[in-house]
Write a structure and sequence with these properties.
The protein is mainly α. It contains 11 helices and no strands. GO terms for molecular function: DNA binding; sigma factor activity.
């Protein structure tokens, strides 16, 4: 399906917990605890349950799909090495995994030398990791600020930013969806992020 039809430019919605999602979270936690015991089959289970989501986290920060895929592989290596430090009493499994993915992607961005339209310090705020309910509640104020500031941007800039950060689309995909040149999309995102950062600074 063409990205032109997939793109809607809407603010991401919260997904309420259901019995099925609660069971899935419990299964993921159990698998991650088994990874801590060096269970390779459990790691494959964790990968199958979370790779799509963690790839989205990496892509929203890295922007480049190839880089996001490389970072994702490194993420699961870190998961294998650090699973013993996972504490269910401190964070849900998905929140713990998303934190590793986010940090790995931000580390990758900081290692790059080219001019980049995405400020690294803003990336962590913009990425919606869909953490556990308590974490989501603690982020409500920040999300409200981002929503208000996005509302102050020109619609095209706001839509391009949402497409890149919340839908994980690349520059060419956003350009196709919005029927604009790639250079125009890059300019919209770069200028929009500058305005967004200024707005967020005023609200702090």
């Amino acid at each position: 399906m063409s990205n032109r039809h997939c793109f809607r430019g809407r603010w991401p919605r919260e997904h309420p917990l259901t019995p099925a999602s609660i069971e899935r979270r419990a299964d993921l936690q159990a698998a991650l605890l088994r990874v801590a015991q060096q269970d390779r089959e459990a790691l494959r289970t964790v990968y199958a349950m979370t790779s799509a989501k963690l790839h989205g986290v990496c892509l929203r920060i890295c922007i480049d799909r190839g880089a996001a895929e490389d970072v994702l592989q490194n993420v699961y290596l870190k998961v294998w090495q650090r699973a013993g430090s996972f504490d269910p009493a401190k964070a849900s499994a998905i929140a713990w995994l998303c934190a590793i993915a986010r940090n790995a992607a931000i580390d990758w961005r900081r290692s790059q030398r080219y001019e980049d339209p995405l400020p690294v310090d803003l990336a962590e705020t913009l990425v919606d990791v869909d953490a556990d309910p308590s974490a989501a509640l603690s982020q409500d104020s920040e999300r409200a600020q981002i929503f208000r500031c996005l509302g102050e941007l020109e619609p095209a800039r706001a839509s391009a930013i949402k497409a890149g950060f919340y839908q994980g689309l690349s520059y060419p995909e956003i350009a196709e969806a919005m029927d604009k040149p790639v250079g125009t999309v890059k300019s919209w995102i770069r200028r929009g992020l500058m305005q967004l950062k200024e707005c967020l600074s005023r609200e702090q």
